[in-house]
Amino acid sequence: MSDSEEEECSDRQLKFVVLGDGTSGKTSLATRFAQEAFGKQYKQTIGLDFFLKRITLPGNVNVTLQVWDIGGQTIGGKMLDKYVYGAQAVLLVYDITNQQSFENLEDWYNVVKKVNEESETQPHVALVGNKIDLEHLRAVKVDKHLRFCQENHSSSHFVSAKTGDSVFLCFQRIAADLLDVKLNKAEIEQSQSVVKADIVNYSQDPVTRTVNSPRSSMCTIQ
């Protein structure tokens, strides 16, 4: 096997950190993506939960995503800085039916900025509005969501961890952006064939769980 073939076969690794208030659906989002499952009973994440999932992007680019699900009560915790450090992507998750969960993202984002203020490379920041299956109960207006994205140069995503709408697409788009892989319309539609067209337009494999989480090699319930 040539060096180029070995490089193509080897996995890239990306560290994704999921932040936001408790009950915003962070654990549900991570579980839906990594295990394609949804738990109906709320269970608070204490400290850190960890998931691994391997996906393949266009061009046969294999990438293993380390998804760090940070407990909502750790906003003032001593370990939070260490959890966020080294992340290539930060997902700021809120519940579209809960205005306060959106307002509190400012505190979470301030932590991210503090951790990375002296870093040469900044993580990809994604604003994720969860629970779009409850659109009729929406409390956070879309224009407020989009304003946050514009002001903080973050990508915009709307998902439902409960139904799975746009969840894989959210992680896929972020990973593709980080690795400079272009997704065409057909690939996006194929990855989310069960998602309604209006949801797609609206949002612009086995799993391992471990307690002692390794560092990335690349240096919720509703």
Keywords:
single chain, alpha/beta, disordered C terminus, cytoplasm, prenylation, lipoprotein, metal ion binding
Structural write-up:
With about 220 residues, this protein is α/β, with parallel strands linked by helices. It has helices at about 5-10, 25-35, 80-85, 100-105, 105-115, 140-150, 165-180, 185-190, 195-200; strands at about 10-20, 50-55, 60-70, 90-95, 125-130, 155-160. It is globular, with a radius of gyration of 17 Å. One of its GO terms (molecular function) is GTP binding. It is found in: Cell membrane; Cytoplasm, Cytoskeleton, Cilium basal body; Nucleus. It comes from Varanus komodoensis. Belongs to the small GTPase superfamily. Rab family.
Topology, please?
Layout: H1 3-9, E1 12-19, H2 26-35, E2 48-57, E3 61-70, H3 80-84, E4 89-95, H4 99-103, H5 105-115, E5 124-130, H6 142-152, E6 155-158, H7 167-178, H8 185-191, H9 197-202
Query: Rg from C-alpha positions?
Result: 17 Å
Strand order of the largest sheet: 2-3-1-4-5-6
Order of helices and strands: HEHEEHEHHEHEHHH
Number of E strands: 6
Note the total helix count: 9
Provide the structure class. alpha/beta
Gross morphology is: globular
Measured between the Cα atoms of the first and last residue, the distance is 47 Å
Strand-residue proportion: 15-25%
Helix content: 25-40%
Low-confidence stretches: 1-9, 41-46, 192-222
Largest sheet: 6 strands, mixed
Overall pLDDT: 79
Membrane topology: Lipid-anchor
Family: Belongs to the small GTPase superfamily. Rab family.
Organism: Varanus komodoensis
EC number: 3.6.5.2
